[in-house]
Structure prediction request, 210 residues.
Amino acid sequence: MTTHAYSQLYLSKASRAVGNMLYDAVTGFGMNGTDFLKRFIQSDVARQFESGNPKYIAGKSGMELFLEVMEKTTGESYNSNLVESYDRSPVYWVGWMLAHYQWHSCRTFKSILDTVPYDDLLSLYGTLHEADIQKSYEVLDAHFTNSESKLKTARKRCGLTQEGLANESGVSLNTIRAYERKSKDLNKAQFDIVMRLTKALKCEVSDLLE
Prediction:
């Protein structure tokens, strides 16, 4: 059973704030959505949502989040005279959906956007924005199911076979196969297993975990 970082009671407010933040960035300030979301992740604001920090999930407006992201990633203070007035545009929906799916899946924003980039999410608006939220979850889950696991990508980059990685890491071949086909979740593996794999693959933990 998935353990969420915060209660569903806060999800509506949190998702609106992320949607409004993205709307401000793209519509209000003319930023590229992909570039801004990279700043959102780099700023550590994304991690505050992932960890369920109440100051962020329930205490900040979209504009406040936008200003904080920009200040943390540029070192400059941003001021805005914009009056917060939002429509339920495709851009807003992408931010809203990102927050919902992050809460639902417990994946990081980086992992989600690495698998389903901003432009791809934007293209889903037409078919999903009026659908039940569970349908959106299913569509995004399918992207992860159909995508190559980060472990497999890292292994191939090192030029190792599954058998070679098993020999190098001491992790059983069957276990590696299960993680690569995602029948077992590497994010929930014992720390020792993750560290043995990262050592064998000469990579960082973040290179393997979704």
In short: The two ends are 17 Å apart (CA to CA). Residues 23 and 67 are 13 Å apart (CA to CA). DSSP finds 13 helices and no strands in the chain. The first helix runs from residue 11 to 28.
